């Protein structure tokens, strides 16, 4: 991680769970971290969980990644404040309790796709434009899911599964585009199994199901970032011991 010390990382969905863990770990590793979140006050509160020497490296920006205007405004702020983006961590993701064929669920379906797919693509686009403008060999990381590789027969999360399959395809597409553009920018998909976060239904968070912790995913992010410039981790799948999904 030494080569990233002092560099700028933008992390989405930092108000809780995986995003909060990543933001804290990157700040502790010496990076300047810009946490984008709707509940910006919760990202601000993360500073209290950091060593005093790292607190001034974490910055909270209010942003709903399902809204392009919020994304553009946030990346403009990063450029004006810090010069640009070196690392992009697309973590923001939501699930809505609806089946594809339920009546009257259009808004819920759109919310998931706008956040999990369009938000990820637009943030990646703005980060890439910043990296290209400054000739930075940066890194884009998508927090995906095992649901992006296998259709799970879980009621009420089916559009979530489709959105994560899109992330898998988008990752490989971005790799092709970055290679065709002659850049050395990396792109990585990290696909966890069940993680003890708010996105998991409360009925499953009862100790009976094997679960990962948010910190396990953050460690994977640090690993991917810490690889040699010649190494690209395209896909990293992480499951809790004993998981049967």
TrEMBL record:
Q: Name one Pfam family in it.
A: adh_short
Species in which this protein is naturally found: Aedes albopictus
**Source lineage:** Eukaryota, Metazoa, Ecdysozoa, Arthropoda, Hexapoda
Query: Hey, which family's this protein in?
Result: Belongs to the short-chain dehydrogenases/reductases (SDR) family.
Recorded superkingdom: Eukaryota
What name goes with this protein? Dehydrogenase
Q: Which UniProt keywords apply?
A: Oxidoreductase
């Amino acid at each position: 991680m030494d080569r990233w010390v002092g560099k700028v990382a933008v992390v989405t969905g930092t108000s809780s769970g995986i995003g909060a863990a990543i933001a804290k770990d990157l700040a502790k590793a010496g990076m300047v971290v810009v946490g984008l979140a709707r509940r910006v006050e919760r990202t601000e509160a993360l500073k209290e969980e950091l060593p005093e020497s790292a607190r001034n490296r974490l910055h909270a920006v209010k942003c709903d990644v399902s809204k392009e205007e919020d994304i553009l405004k946030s990346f403009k702020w990063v450029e004006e404040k810090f010069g640009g983006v070196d690392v992009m961590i697309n973590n923001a993701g939501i699930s809505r309790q609806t089946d594809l064929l339920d009546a009257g669920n259009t808004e819920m379906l759109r919310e998931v796709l706008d956040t999990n797919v369009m938000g990820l693509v637009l943030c990646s686009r703005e980060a890439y434009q910043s990296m290209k403008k400054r000739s930075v060999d940066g890194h884009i990381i998508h927090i995906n899911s095992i649901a992006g590789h296998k259709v799970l027969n879980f009621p009420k999360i089916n559009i979530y599964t489709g959105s994560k399959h899109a992330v898998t395809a988008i990752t490989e597409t971005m790799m092709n585009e970055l290679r065709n553009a002659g850049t050395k920018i990396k792109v990585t998909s990290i696909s966890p199994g069940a993680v003890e976060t708010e996105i998991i239904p409360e009925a499953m968070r009862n100790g009976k199901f094997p679960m990962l912790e948010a910190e396990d995913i953050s460690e994977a992010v640090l690993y991917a970032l810490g690889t040699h410039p010649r190494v690209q981790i395209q896909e990293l799948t992480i499951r809790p011991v004993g998981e049967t999904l």
